[in-house]
Amino acid sequence: DSGVTQTPKHLITATGQRVTLRCSPRSGDLSVYWYQQSLDQGLQFLIQYYNGEERAKGNILERFSAQQFPDLHSELNLSSLELGDSALYFCASSVTGGASTDTQYFGPGTRLTVL
Amino acid sequence: GQQVMQIPQYQHVQEGEDFTTYCNSSTTLSNIQWYKQRPGGHPVFLIQLVKSGEVKKQKRLTFQFGEAKKNSSLHITATQTTDVGTYFCAGGRGNQFYFGTGTSLTVIP
């Protein structure tokens, strides 16, 4: 158990819909990262937040957005869902996120299925 | 843009054989991290290398960072069925990590 929690574990929805994925980082970690992992694919970095502020942006679609709240939990919003958005979405947290030397602790992931 | 490639994409070995995965970056990295993801699981941090030419060992696993800090390797000696999973490297540069494409290891008993 990494100490990072993600809800829900599974999500099944239809094309065109909007969903919200939730992540609570490890106690004391200030930075949250979101990744997308499609079937048999690597980890695609989406976005990073540090202490409530956006720190780095990866291959995140305009239909996707994220935020980190004062209590440091984070939400990833996916809208106008398409079939290709079906994937495993991981959240990871690290202590500072200020440098790339931080160890990232991954949550169990949310499996999104778009029908 | 920044790319981190790993080879091979898949590897099947007999239990007891050695295994190596290679990670290559198009640009110089500040550090490299390795993660393991068991089937159905999430990535778990294994180790970090920072210095040019650095070599670290964890039991049967040997990690190496290239002299130019553009490549890295993970070698497993005498694989066991517990080694099954996907191994990812993650290169650090600036404030970002760039995850490699991963190598999926299957160990045949």
Helix content of chain B: under 10%
Name the structural class of chain A: mainly beta
Based on DSSP secondary structure assignment, what is the total number of beta strands of chain B? 11
Shape of chain B: globular
SSE layout and pairings?
The complex is a heterodimer of chains A (115) and B (109).
Chain A: E1 5-7, E2 10-13, E3 19-24, E4 31-37, E5 44-50, E6 53-57, E7 64-68, E8 74-78, E9 87-94, E10 105-106, E11 110-114
Parallel strand pairs in A: 2-11
Antiparallel strand pairs in A: 1-3, 3-8, 4-5, 4-9, 5-6, 7-8, 9-10, 9-11
Chain B: E1 4-7, E2 10-14, E3 19-25, E4 31-37, E5 43-49, E6 55-58, E7 61-65, E8 71-76, E9 85-93, E10 96-99, E11 103-108
Parallel strand pairs in B: 2-11
Antiparallel strand pairs in B: 1-3, 3-8, 4-5, 4-9, 6-7, 7-8, 9-10, 9-11
Explain how this protein is built:
The complex is a heterodimer of chains A (115) and B (109). With 115 residues, chain A is mostly beta strands. Helix content of chain A is 0%, strand content 50%. Chain A is built from no helices and 11 strands. Chain A has strands at 5-7, 10-13, 19-24, 31-37, 44-50, 53-57, 64-68, 74-78, 87-94, 105-106, 110-114. In chain A, strands 2, 4, 5, 6, 9, 10 and 11 form a 7-stranded mixed sheet that branches. In chain A, strands 1-3-8-7 form a 4-stranded antiparallel sheet, with no helix packed on it. In chain A, strand 4 (31-37) and strand 5 (44-50) form a beta hairpin. Chain A is globular, with a radius of gyration of 13 Å. In chain B, 37% of the residues are buried. With 109 residues, chain B is mostly beta strands. In chain B, strand 6 and strand 7 (61-65) form a beta hairpin. Chain B has strands at 4-7, 10-14, 19-25, 31-37, 43-49, 55-58, 61-65, 71-76, 85-93, 96-99, 103-108. The termini of chain B are far apart. Chain B is globular and about 40 Å long. The chains are: A mainly beta (115), B mainly beta (109). The interface between A and B is medium-sized, with 26 and 24 residues.
